[in-house]
Description:
- By secondary structure, the protein is mainly alpha-helical.
- Helix content is about 40%, strand content about 5%.
- The protein is built from eight helices and three strands.
- It has a three-stranded antiparallel sheet, covered by helices on one side.
- Helix 5 packs antiparallel against helix 6 (about 120-125).
- It is elongated.
Amino acid sequence: MFSSVPARKMQICSVCSEQPPKYRCPSCKVRYCSLGCYKKHKDSCLPVEKPASSHPESKDAAGSAEPLSLDDLLHEDDVIDKVPPQRLQLLGQSTELRDLLCNPHLRQLLRSVDDAESKASAMKAAMQEPLFVEFADRCLKVVEGEDNALSSSD
């Protein structure tokens, strides 16, 4: 009965069919991977009818890329970089991360990314800081399980 349904379907960009999608068209909900793909897509976009928006400024954003929402990420099995909640909880148990977070400069960098209107630009700027790169690398090692591999190899 379940054999005709794949257990886990990996999505690819609806425009180039090469990369995993990072964005969703705000008009028709088609998924795409880059600004280039969005520009190609917008010429043939067929908007999906939806109720009138309660936010009048949303018309200005109709032509811009809409990142996947938190709800999208939490409820989709086909997102490649999705980290299970159990792995995320390991971040709070890392003494190395806790030590890094004692640094006021790192805390300020994290606040600036969190407060930024353009998260992508703020992340790009923060990634120029060696301390932030060290923090990001450490987070990745924790959620990817490299902590366990390192401690078990000794």
